[in-house]
Amino acid sequence: MTAPGLTNIHHYSPTVSDVETSAAWYERVLGMSRVPAPFPHWGDEEGGYAVVLLHPAGFLIGLHHHHARLEGGFDERKTGLDHVAFGVASRADLDTWATWLDTCGVAHDGVQDAKDPMPYSTLVFRDPDNIQLELFHMET
């Protein structure tokens, strides 16, 4: 028996410290559009909500606000999310993104080209809650 098929990643949903600040950042930096109505938490409708953003490529980001949010910032060394990577069509797109992030005032590590264990290129930056985001290209 094999696993059923998948089409793509539908959405990414981080819990954020300030949903409006994060929504404005993702709209400005990643070019996303806000879905008009907030979404309740499935199974905990009274516990918070998500502001959902749509990217022109078709994926969603649900920025979650929990009324009982635990304090403490994001750290990829804790069990849970390490980072989220978005693919780009070409290596040159990473250079274009680096320039765009500079224009937006978003700190990043510059485009990094790696050879091991196979050739790929990345551009790493962080959202307002310090969640690591990555733009990734690898020739197929």
From TrEMBL:
InterPro entries: Glyas_Bleomycin-R_OHBP_Dase (IPR029068), Glyas_Fos-R_dOase_dom (IPR004360), VOC_core (IPR037523). Residues 8-138 form the VOC domain. It holds the Pfam family Glyoxalase. Transmembrane segments: none annotated. PROSITE patterns: VOC. It comes from the Bacteria. This is VOC family protein.
